[in-house]
Design goal:
about 280 residues, mainly alpha, 11 helices, elongated
């Protein structure tokens, strides 16, 4: 980033921070989080089944635990989720500034590691999905196989949601890469032609020998620089980040295996496969 762009970038950071810290968005998020508990009069987890949420069947007579769940726990969870989405949106606004390329992502490679910080949120959402699946298996006769699509869908959606903000810089990164390939390509071609003329067509001075010369080193260094440009990604995300987010989404689903398959049967199956 050029020195002249620093004040503009700092102003953008200040504006985004003010939006993050304003009370009005937080208040609106609280309202959005609490309204479903007032408007939706149906059981959230196990409709038509007697459970700890209700007294008897149905959702009209909430138990004390159900009241706490419906009017405290769930609104608070919704608020935290909406708050993270709001901050993710604000963070996306900061990705419109592009630095020069040096780490195969035009200086934005560090953003991929930043997205790993959202893995606890992915894990928390995964626990909610896992609890829904567990209820379906335990009380509604569902099987792990029949519920695999919602679990897979959650992992895919969570990863896409967290990676999509990084796409805002892709058009700019594409233009930077295209321009750099042309410029570095021309420079490499010119250098290689001069190297060819000097050492392969024997146009060097009589006193020059290739052993100990810096010319082969410059050939390798320039080729390596061009390789960095050619391998630069237009989406600043790497495989470790994707694997971290996928693992965070999948870990809450692991206990479902022991719920769907008794431990003794699971051990017997593992020993059978090993044998």
């Amino acid at each position: 980033m050029a020195d002249a762009d620093v004040p503009v970038f700092e102003k953008l950071l200040e504006k985004t921070s003010r939006l993050r810290d304003r009370a009005l968005p937080e208040l609106m998020l609280w309202v959005a989080a609490f309204l479903p508990s007032l408007l939706v009069k149906t059981e959230l987890l196990m409709s038509g089944i007697s459970n700890w949420h209700t007294i008897g069947t149905g959702a009209s007579a909430l138990s004390m635990a159900g009241w706490w769940f419906n009017y405290v726990s769930i609104p608070f969870f919704r608020f935290l989720l909406l708050r993270w989405i709001w901050r993710l949106f604000l963070g996306t606004l900061l990705l419109w500034r592009v630095a020069t390329h040096s780490d195969m992502a035009a200086g934005l490679g560090f953003l991929s590691q930043g997205q790993e910080a959202f893995s606890p949120i992915v894990f928390a959402g995964g626990t909610v999905i896992a609890s829904q699946v567990a209820n379906a298996i335990a009380y509604q006769g569902a099987t792990l196989s029949s519920m695999k699509f919602p679990m897979i869908a959650y992992a895919v959606i969570a990863i896409i949601l967290l990676v999509s903000p990084l796409l805002v810089g892709s058009p700019v990164l594409y233009k930077i890469k295209k321009k750099a390939l042309l410029e570095y390509g021309a420079l490499v071609a010119e250098h290689n032609q001069q190297f060819d003329q000097k050492w392969l067509l024997n146009k060097q001075s009589p006193n020059e020998v290739i052993l100990g010369s810096n010319d082969p080193c410059s050939l390798i260094d320039l080729g390596s620089s061009f390789l960095v440009v050619r391998q630069m990604g237009i989406v600043p995300v790497d495989k470790p980040t994707l694997m971290t987010l996928a693992l965070a989404a999948a870990l809450p689903m692991v206990p479902l295996v022991f719920l769907a398959i008794p431990v003794n049967e699971l051990l017997h199956l593992v020993l059978k496969m090993l044998g």
